[in-house]
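Input/output pair, single chain:
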Amino acid sequence: MQNDKTTLKDLSIFPSDGSEGVFGLIDRTATQAGRAALKKHILHPPGTYEQLIAMQETIRFWHNNHDLWPTNILNGTIVMLEKFYESADTVSVPPGGFAKLLGTLLQKVFNNKEYKFARFSMSHLSDMLNGCSQLAAIPEQREVPALLLRELETIKNELQHRLIEPIMTISDHTRYSDLIQLQYGARRELKNAIHRLIASYARIDAWQSMAKATAEHGWAFPTITAETPVSINAEGLYHPLLSTPITYDISFDEKKNFLLLTGANMSGKTTFLRALGVNSLLAHLGMGVAASRMQTSFMHGIITNMHAEDNILKGESYFFAEVQRMKQIAARLSKQRPHLALMDELFKGTNVHDACECTKAVVEGLMNHPNHIMMLSTHLYEVAQQFKEDSRVVFSHFVTNISEDGNYTFTYKLKEGISNDRIGYLILQQEGVIAMLGNK
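Output:
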């Protein structure tokens, strides 16, 4: 799956403007290295259906077997090892006889700084290797999915070095002379192996993080099907960043693959599009989704058009930015590989007549691409009316309750059909703008 920066920003995946974003909901990593691996996984989700199924199986394993996760590898462990190996190239000769002859007590007195560093760094190295050894032993205890098994076998192979076992048995009672010999050997012979172990551990840390977040939030693992026929079905779907979310039930397939969503301003259209986009991404990461049940065919990407930005330095207007984003969407959808396209209130940067005509033209063009799931929200009632007889289009709307005295309330519930609610003037009036300007 390929998702560009604009899509990730539209869906609030990464922290911004004081919010932790969706990333904050799924980051349960034990280390910064794992956190970096998790971010990389989000930026580059599995590229094929087979890879996604393998990833989901691995995350399911950790979801069901989190008691096997080693707790002795902390973020400080990896930070310390990185510092330890930064200085490795400065040590060119083994420790001399004088260092060996000095007892532990004398080392504390005459060479306290080096003594503490040796003890501290080697204890962290011992913790790292013991934690990796616990991971490597998992296949002996449980049946392990293929993707995880390959990673664990990689770790097991790295642990075959002659120095591994004596380093793993280091304790407070280890003689200093033995300790510095092991330290020298670890610096000279294990540097590359330790970096590879850290990389393997970081990937597994990212996988267990998604499993832990899935369990913590009570999310459900979705059913992933092959990319064709294209389909998305969900019950109880909601936006995971909302504290009191409204749930949605949706259904799309290759015969009804286009949703035209109507409703008044602030009625919930954008939130719905984001909820579907976020959960589709979570599904394609291999983890659980914020829904009671979800099935989705494999998508090669999510692409959004929600918040275009003008560029004053390039002399590009807001409308031109919208057109350029729509051009990018058209290029992606011209390919046969299925995508999820989410478009929110197109062409806001021009007058109502132009916006209506441009939106109609876009919808007509999108109908020529049945291999994708596409959704467009609009408050232009005329656009929905033009396509109401097209069997390929699903019409849904958000209801606004308007009383006789002009008050309005939102239900935020998704219903079938087309809305012609218009409350822009009522909002302007209720917020006191009309009165402040002295309008009669």
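The beta strands are 223-225, 232-237, 248-252, 258-263, 293-297, 302-305, 340-344, 373-378, 393-402, 408-416. Residues 191-217 form the longest helix (27 residues).
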